[in-house]
Each structure stands twice: as structure tokens, then as C-alpha cells.
């Protein structure tokens, strides 16, 4: 097996008396598509929040790129190459599609305050170089027509796409997707699947995703981890997970009845 | 038919990112600058220059400052007056302590002092947001004004507390003090404001502006894509206060020719806030439009009823102003939060399609 | 420097009776802040609106009351008429400002109430004039001595009235049907709506009650300082009170008001002379600011948990 990008070891997370996660361990291998599934309230989003530094685990450790992570803020995780999208879209509503995706490039833009004031010379050259990169993402996601539209006015499916674009603009090593297909119709889901697979193949980006649509999860992911009530109950390739007795009881069983 | 962009193709991203991508806009802007720098000083009288245009320019500068903080970065401030006062008193101290110092440098340095003070009062923005922050900025407002009124060091131990701005010249022309002509003051203000407005526009359309707007629209998401919230907000506080500080220095040195803390009380802060709400939150153009509106409204209220034969008393005019401002703010917040600037943009879009309605 | 900081402490130690007087005076004027802050809390709890106009409402209520009195109305009639005006104002604000702005960001609503502040300031001063008016509702203002400490009887009466008002409100919220509906709305707008509580009616009631509180505060303050524009500015001090007490807590508003009132009086009497005086203008704000850094949710507020 190839290199491990991120390793979660015995991570627990509590809010007051409620335990959102207890002693969860799994790993994410470089280049794979890793799905995290589970019933509502199983702690999936909390898991992603721990990985990108929004929550601090109350116990356990997270090893990213071979280094154990100490307590950190989300912007530090971003600087380390972790990007994500959200269950309830978190775009910058007052800005255009182009500007939203450009914010994804912020960490790569280095020109200082002085040149920014002039918007000339190096600052302008940098701006244009990044604009070219962003235009490639816009082409890739097929959203050329809405380049200058404020995202607040876009329909839901397109907003999801712009959010993916913003995460991609950061050229992440690890991309976290929180329910990328929730609330989409069949056609939009197919598009989104295609984008996710393309991103994985073309850029070699490692992806961890949460998704409710079992068909999609089993089709596109390489390995699946299943959570229930904050505990891991299964972990493995889709076929093995599908056959797991506990998973069927906890989760798929409900759907089959 | 004149306002068409058909036939103007952009072949590179640089052209697409220009401030005025449409040719007619560029021509319009050039015409406005020409009129402002050449025509106005030739034809305008003393009254028009020194009671309308100069305060308009200074207000516009302060409004740009507040717009950067509130309109772009989303941090509501009610302390604008306090930061303007910082600029005014810092300029006075610099100008009197170093009489040889160029007045432009004095103004820029005093903007820097205001920026430093702004950063100090911006620190709470790490932990608090929205109206909590508004209350924190009220602290700046009341504390700073008190400081400048009570500590005699700031007024060079003058007994009356009201001090006049020392005369200073640029290129041999007096721009402050008794000997300065209205034309010289106007050109000086105009140049400074035009340059600073351009710098502000450059800042907001680049990396820094996008970071500010990201914090404004959703600070948590901004942090997750790698923006450092405190640093970004403090930069907004610093730049904003710099602009307000320079505006305050211009106000004291060039408009009123006297440095007094009372000119920058809480009502001044509200006045600037109204300018950006009416002119347009998150728009440099809107800062100018809002400033123009607030300067012109009292004159309009004075002139029109008199012409109609029902002159209003000064107190009534003040009350009417309050009512109109209040009503307009509610109106703009409900109907068009992007203010006059957005109305102007809509008008241009209509013009582009004219004479076809759609 | 050390003398400016610590000298007053010695003074406090040596003249405890005078210190008690200062503290009691401060507490009593703090009652006024509490009253205004109470109006803020009511509206914030019920509608999530941070009503900057509360201070202006104090001024408007006082102006209207004095105006009717000057027109020859007896006190009880002036009271009823003013209440009617405040109710009309509540209706108008709900219909013209709150309803069109429903679901907007809190900061937009906050700015809208700044607009309302200026509008009603201008409107009421246009109607009633902007001269300083004397207001006398017959409360005695003689100093009385109580266990060796001098207190103004007016302040005592004002505190009693404020206490009665708070008690009445507490009863209203705990024990009446409207009060229960109101608490439900405060907890969760949507849930309240879904069990059939009419949101808009509740908002009007809350704004009207806030108007009543403003009226009481306006009369008290007006008869102490005269009815004038600066009342609206003094009422701004309710903002730091809220920060201290927490935006959603009625006990917080009261305790916060008392702390601010006492704190600024003590600071003004003992420390201000050393640094130039007049620190009452900003003391409350700086105190609130420092407090914010350590406990952003206030003394009695709930901890804010951020979610994505």
C-alpha cells in the first residue's frame, strides 16, 4: 500500500456532556477517495471539523503528512494544504464567482501591501497569473457563463460547484467534501461525481467525502469508513462494508426495510 | 446609443481587470478629472469652493475610510470621529514640532498615527463582532475626544482649547493658514483625495480587498480557506483609520483652519456612517456619492423652501435633515443596500440597452 | 502617578460615610441605565433586533409627555396619550422597518434602527420643539438622611418606581398568556410560529412595552435633568450596560446598570480629578470594552458556540 497522508488515532470529541466522537481511528492514503458515512448525528461533520482544525479533539491524535498536529487554527490547516466544502454552502455571497474562486488563491499570492496599493508591476502580474489559473478551474467546472455573477443569485447546484472551485483553487493535497451532492437532482449529481473523479485522477488530489447517497458512495470511493453514534463500526473497501453485518443493521438495514 | 460596449473586445485578463473596462467610462472619468482640476478652479467662486467642494472632498475621504472597514470588511464602526480627531491633533503636533516638515508628509504621518490608534481599538474585533464591536468603537469615540479635550499637551497648552492651523505651503503656494487661497486649498485637497481614492480602489480590487470581503461575508469560511482573521481585520482597521486620520487633518487644517476636538464628536461619526449607507456599502464611488448627498442636502433644504416663500428656521432644517437621513437609511437598507452607487450602475445598465427596455 | 492611582483608596478608607454616599448615589443613577437597558433586552430577546433607537425612544416619550402636559392635559391623561403615541410608534416601526427587513443580517437591522433613531429624533423635535423643558411630576427632591448617609429622596422614589416596573414586567412574562408566547418567541422564532403564535403581534407588543419602559425612564430622567436632546445621548450608556449584563438577560440588564452607575460615579469622584475630570463620558465604554475581552457573552449571557 502507498503512502499514508493522514492518520486519525483514537480521536474523541465532546461538547459539554455530549460525546460527538469516541476513539475513532482510520487513515487516508495518498491519492484515494475516502468516504465517511453513517446515519444522521453519527459525527461525520465533527470528524471533518477536527481534521481541518475547526474543532480540537479532546483526546487522541491526528498525524498529517507524518507529523503529529498540535492544536491549530483552521487557517493553519489551510496553509498545510487542506481545503474543504461545507454541508450548508459557505460561499462569500456578496462576491462574484470569479472573486470567490480567487479567494481560494489567497494563500498563494505573496505580493505585499505596497504593491497592492499600486496594483501595478509585480502585484498586477501576480494577479493575472492567478487569474489564468482560476480561469482553468472555471473551464474545468464549466461555469464560464456565471463568472461575474454574484454567487448569492446562483441556484443551489451551481453554488455547490463554485464552492468546489474555490477549494480546488487552493491546489489542496487533501480535499474534504461535506455532502457535495446533498439536495441535488440526478443530473447535477452525475456532474458532481464526474468532477470529483476527474479531480482525483487529473490532479491526483486525495479526497475525503461525506455523502448520504449510498449508490454514489459505493461507486466512486476507494475505501469507506462507517460511523455510528460517534464510533467507528466498519472500515474497508465498498463491497466489504456493504456486506458487514453491523453496517446493515445500523444503516443500510433501515434503508432496505 | 452612445453608451455601448459592443465592438470592444478584451484580449487579455489585464484589460478585463481594469477599473473601467468600458471605453465610455474611461472617457467619462477623464472628463470628470479634467473638469475638477481645470474647469472648476477657473469658474467656481470662493463660497462654492470653500463651503461645498472642500468639505465634500474631505467627507468623501473619510467615507472611503469607513467604507473600507464597514463596507468591505464588515466591521461596523461608530468611532470615525475619534480617528479623525487623532489625525487632526497628530497633524497639529507634527506641524508645530517640526515646522520644516513638508505638509504632505505631515498629513501622511498623522494618518499613520490614526492608523496605529485604530489598530489598538481594533484588537477586540478578534473576539467580538457586529454590535458588540460597535459599542467597542464607541469607547474609542468618547475616550479619544475626552483625551484631546482634557490633556493640554495636545493643544500645546493653549488656554482656549481652540487652536488655529499654522500656515504651510506646497510648491510655493500656501495651502493652510490665513494666506491660502480657496483655489490652492481645493487643488491640494483634490490631488490628495484623488490619489488616495485610487490607492483604495487598488487595495479593494486585489488580494487584500478579497480577503476583507471574505471576512465580511463569512468569517468562518474565510478562516478555513486560510485567511487569518485578526490580521486581516487589523489591516482594515489600520487602513480605514489612516484615511479617516488624513481626512481629519485636512478638515482641521484646510476646511476650518482650526483644530478642535468638538468638530469630531459622535455626530460626525454618524454623519460618515450615513454617507456610506446612502452612497453604497462596499463601493468607492458610493463614498463620493454619499458625501455629495450629505453636503448638498442641508443647502437644498435651505435654498428651496426660501425660494418657495416658506423659509425654514435653522433648527427646523436640522430636524428635517435628521428625518430625511433616518428615512433614507431605512429606505436604502430595505430597497437597495448598495446605495446610490448601485442605482448609478443600474442606470448605466439601462442606458446600455437603451432604447430597448430589456 | 502612583498618587493618582492609589491616593483615592486612602481617601475611601478614611471617609467611609462619604464613600457610601457616592456608592449609593451611583447605584441610584445606575437604576436609570438599567431601565433603558431593559428596553433593549426585551426587544433583543423577542425579535433579535439590537434596537439602537431605545435611547431616542426615551427622549421621544419624555418630549411627548411634557408636550401634552404643556397643552394643559393632567398627568394621567398625558400618560395615557403618550402611551398611545408609543404604541403607534411600535406599530409603525414593525410595519415599515422590521417587516421588510425580516431575515436580514443582524448588523443591517442594527443600522436600520440607527436610521429610526435619527428619524424619530427629528420628527419629535419638529413637533414638540427642541428647547430644554422642565418636567415636574411632583416627586420631592429633598435630601434625606439615612443611617448617617445623605440620599436624595427623588432618587429613592425613582428606584422604587423602577423596581415596581421590573417586578410588573417579571409578572407579565412569567404568568400571563402573552408573556408565555413571548418567551416562546424568544427561544425559537420558527418553533413559536409553527405552534401558532403570531410573530408580528408579539413584536408590536414588545416594542410597545419597550416604549412604556422608555416612557418611565424618560419621565424620571426628564424630571432630574430637564427634557432635552442630550437625554438620547445619555441613554447610549445603556449599550455598555448590556455588554456587561449580556444581551438576553433581564437580571443582567439590572445588575449591569447598577455596576456601571456605581463604577462611573466612584471613578468620577475619586479618580477623575487626578486626570482632568469628566471621565463619566467614557468610563462605562472602556469598562465594557475591557470586560468584553475576558467574557464576550456578558455576566449572565449564554456562551456563544460557533458552528459551520
Any key phrases for this structure?
heterotrimer, B: 14 helices, C: 308 residues, two-stranded antiparallel ribbon, 3% strand, globular
Structure, described:
The complex is a heterotrimer of chains A (257), B (358) and C (308). Chain A is of the alpha/beta class. Chain A has ten helices and ten strands. Chain A has two domains: 1-81 and 172-257, P-loop containing nucleotide triphosphate hydrolases (Rossmann fold); 94-170, no CATH class. Chain A has helices at residues 44-51, 74-79, 97-103, 113-118, 122-140, 156-169, 186-203, 214-220, 238-243, 245-256, and strands spanning 4-15, 18-29, 33-37, 59-64, 67-68, 82-84, 174-178, 206-210, 223-228, 231-236. Chain A has a six-stranded mixed sheet, sandwiched between helices. In chain A, strands 2-1-4-5 form a four-stranded antiparallel sheet, with helices on one face. In chain A, helix 7 links the parallel strand 7 (174-178) and strand 8. In chain A, helix 3 (97-103) runs parallel beside helix 6 (156-169). The longest helix of chain A has 19 residues, at 122-140. The mean pLDDT of chain A is 86. Chain B has 358 residues and is an all-alpha fold. Chain B has a domain at 22-265: Orthogonal Bundle (ABC transporter involved in vitamin B12 uptake, BtuC). Chain B is 71% helix and 2% strand. Chain B has helices at 13-16, 23-43, 46-72, 80-97, 103-122, 130-150, 182-205, 207-217, 219-224, 229-255, 266-279, 284-307, 314-335, 339-353; strands at 163-164, 169-170, 173-174, 258-259. In chain B, the strands form two sheets. Chain B has a two-stranded antiparallel sheet with strand order 1-4. Chain C has a single domain, classed as ABC transporter involved in vitamin B12 uptake, BtuC (Orthogonal Bundle), CATH 1.10.3470. Chain C contains 13 helices and two strands; from the N terminus they run H-H-H-H-H-E-E-H-H-H-H-H-H-H-H. Chain C is globular. The A-B interface holds A 52, 54, 73-75, 77-79, 83-84, 86, 90-95, 99, 102-104, 106-107, 109, 111, 113, 116-119, 123-124, 127-128, 131-132, 135, 166-167, 170 and B 12-14, 17, 199, 202-203, 205-208, 210-211, 213-214, 216-218, 220-229, 235, 282.
Amino acid at each position: 500500500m502507498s503512502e499514508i497522508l493522514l492518520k486519525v488515532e483514537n480521536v474523541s470529541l465532546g461538547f459539554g456532556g455530549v460525546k460527538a466522537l469516541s476513539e475513532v481511528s482510520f487513515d487516508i492514503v495518498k491519492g484515494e477517495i475516502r468516504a465517511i458515512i453513517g446515519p444522521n448525528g453519527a459525527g461525520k461533520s465533527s470528524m471533518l471539523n477536527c481534521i481541518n482544525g475547526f474543532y480540537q479533539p479532546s483526546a487522541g491524535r491526528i498525524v498529517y503528512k507524518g507529523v503529529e498536529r498540535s492544536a491549530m487554527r483552521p487557517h493553519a490547516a489551510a496553509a498545510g494544504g487542506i481545503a474543504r466544502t461545507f454541508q450548508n454552502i459557505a460561499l462569500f455571497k456578496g462576491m462574484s464567482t470569479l472573486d470567490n474562486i480567487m479567494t481560494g488563491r489567497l494563500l498563494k499570492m505573496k505580493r505585499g501591501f505596497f504593491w497592492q496599493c499600486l496594483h501595478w508591476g509585480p502585484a498586477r502580474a501576480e494577479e493575472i497569473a492567478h487569474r489564468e489559473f482560476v480561469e482553468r478551474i472555471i473551464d474545468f467546472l464549466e461555469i464560464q457563463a456565471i463568472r461575474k455573477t454574484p454567487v448569492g443569485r446562483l441556484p443551489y447546484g451551481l453554488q455547490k460547484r463554485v464552492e468546489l472551485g474555490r477549494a480546488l483553487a487552493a491546489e489542496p493535497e487533501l480535499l474534504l467534501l461535506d455532502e457535495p451532492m446533498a439536495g441535488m437532482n440526478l443530473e447535477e449529481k452525475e456532474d458532481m461525481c464526474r468532477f470529483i473523479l476527474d479531480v482525483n485522477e487529473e490532479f491526483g488530489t486525495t479526497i475525503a467525502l461525506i455523502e448520504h447517497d449510498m449508490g454514489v458512495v459505493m461507486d466512486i470511493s476507494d475505501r469507506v469508513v462507517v460511523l455510528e453514534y460517534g464510533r467507528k463500526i466498519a472500515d474497508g473497501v465498498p463491497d466489504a462494508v456493504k456486506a458487514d453485518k453491523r453496517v446493515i443493521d445500523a444503516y443500510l438495514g433501515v434503508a432496505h426495510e | 446609443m452612445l453608451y455601448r460596449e459592443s465592438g470592444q473586445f478584451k484580449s487579455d485578463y489585464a484589460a478585463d481587470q481594469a477599473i473601467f473596462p468600458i471605453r465610455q467610462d474611461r472617457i467619462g472619468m477623464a472628463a470628470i478629472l479634467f473638469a475638477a482640476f481645470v474647469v472648476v478652479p477657473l469658474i467656481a467662486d470662493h463660497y462654492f469652493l470653500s463651503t461645498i467642494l472642500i468639505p465634500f472632498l474631505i467627507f468623501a475621504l473619510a467615507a472611503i475610510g469607513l467604507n473600507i472597514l464597514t463596507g468591505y470588511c464588515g466591521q461596523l464602526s461608530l468611532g470615525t470621529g475619534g480617528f479623525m480627531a487623532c489625525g487632526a491633533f497628530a497633524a497639529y503636533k507634527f506641524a508645530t514640532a517640526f515646522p520644516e516638515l513638508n505638509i504632505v508628509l505631515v498629513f501622511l504621518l498623522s494618518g499613520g498615527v490614526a492608523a496605529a490608534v485604530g489598530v489598538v481599538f481594533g484588537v477586540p474585533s478578534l473576539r467580538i463582532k457586529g454590535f458588540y464591536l460597535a459599542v467597542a468603537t464607541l469607547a474609542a469615540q468618547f475616550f479619544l475626544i475626552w483625551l484631546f479635550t482634557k490633556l493640554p499637551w495636545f493643544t500645546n497648552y493653549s488656554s482656549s482649547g481652540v487652536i488655529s492651523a499654522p500656515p504651510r505651503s506646497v510648491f510655493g503656494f500656501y495651502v493652510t493658514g490665513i494666506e491660502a487661497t480657496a483655489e490652492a486649498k481645493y487643488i491640494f485637497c483634490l490631488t490628495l483625495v484623488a490619489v488616495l481614492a485610487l490607492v483604495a480602489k487598488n487595495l479593494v480590487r486585489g488580494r487584500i480587498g478579497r480577503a476583507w470581503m471574505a471576512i465580511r461575508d463569512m468569517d468562518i469560511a474565510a478562516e478555513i480557506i486560510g485567511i487569518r482573521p485578526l490580521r486581516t481585520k487589523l489591516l482594515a482597521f489600520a487602513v480605514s483609520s489612516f484615511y479617516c486620520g488624513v481626512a481629519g487633518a485636512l478638515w482641521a487644517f484646510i476646511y476650518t483652519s482650526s483644530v478642535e476636538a468638538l468638530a469630531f464628536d459622535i455626530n460626525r461619526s454618524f454623519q460618515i456612517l450615513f454617507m456610506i449607507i446612502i452612497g453604497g456599502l462596499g463601493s468607492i464611488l458610493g463614498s463620493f456619492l454619499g458625501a455629495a448627498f450629505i453636503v448638498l442636502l442641508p443647502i437644498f433644504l435651505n435654498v428651496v423652501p426660501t425660494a418657495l416663500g416658506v423659509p425654514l428656521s435653522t433648527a427646523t432644517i436640522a430636524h428635517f435633515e435628521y428625518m430625511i437621513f433616518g428615512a433614507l437609511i431605512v429606505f436604502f437598507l430595505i430597497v437597495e443596500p448598495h446605495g446610490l452607487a448601485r442605482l448609478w450602475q443600474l442606470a448605466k445598465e439601462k442606458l446600455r440597452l437603451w432604447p430597448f427596455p430589456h | 502617578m502612583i498618587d493618582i492611582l492609589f491616593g483615592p483608596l486612602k481617601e475611601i478608607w478614611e471617609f467611609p460615610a462619604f464613600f457610601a454616599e457616592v456608592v449609593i448615589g451611583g447605584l441610584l443613577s445606575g437604576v436609570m441605565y438599567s431601565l433603558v437597558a431593559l428596553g433593549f433586552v426585551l426587544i433583543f430577546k423577542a425579535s433579535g433586533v439590537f434596537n439602537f433607537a431605545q435611547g431616542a425612544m426615551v427622549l421621544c416619550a419624555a418630549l411627548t409627555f411634557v408636550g401634552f402636559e404643556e397643552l394643559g392635559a393632567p398627568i394621567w391623561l398625558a400618560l395615557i396619550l403618550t402611551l398611545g403615541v408609543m404604541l403607534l410608534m411600535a406599530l409603525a416601526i414593525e410595519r415599515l422597518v422590521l417587516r421588510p427587513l425580516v431575515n436580514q443580517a443582524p448588523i443591517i437591522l442594527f443600522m436600520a434602527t440607527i436610521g429610526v433613531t435619527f428619524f424619530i429624533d427629528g420628527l419629535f423635535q419638529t413637533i414638540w420643539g427642541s428647547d430644554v423643558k422642565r418636567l415636574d411630576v411632583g416627586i420631592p427632591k429633598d435630601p434625606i438622611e439615612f443611617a448617617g448617609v445623605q440620599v436624595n429622596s427623588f432618587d429613592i422614589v425613582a428606584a422604587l418606581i423602577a423596581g415596581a416596573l421590573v417586578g410588573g414586567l417579571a409578572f407579565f412574562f412569567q404568568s400571563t398568556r402573552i408573556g408565555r408566547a413571548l418567551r416562546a418567541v424568544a427561544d425559537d422564532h420558527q418553533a413559536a410560529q409553527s405552534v401558532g403564535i403570531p410573530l408580528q403581534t408579539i413584536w408590536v407588543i414588545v416594542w410597545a412595552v419597550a416604549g412604556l419602559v422608555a416612557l418611565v425612564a424618560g419621565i424620571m430622567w426628564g424630571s432630574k435633568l430637564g427634557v432635552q436632546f442630550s437625554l438620547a445621548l445619555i441613554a447610549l450608556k445603556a449599550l455598555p450596560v448590556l455588554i456587561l449584563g449580556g444581551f438576553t438577560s433581564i437580571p443582567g440588564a439590572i445588575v449591569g446598570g447598577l455596576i456601571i452607575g456605581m463604577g462611573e460615579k466612584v471613578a468620577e469622584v475619586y479618580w477623575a480629578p487626578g486626570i482632568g475630570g469628566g471621565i463619566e463620558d467614557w468610563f462605562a465604554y472602556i469598562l465594557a470594552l475591557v470586560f468584553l475581552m475576558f467574557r464576550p457573552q456578558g455576566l449572565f449571557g449564554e456562551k456563544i458556540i460557533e458552528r459551520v
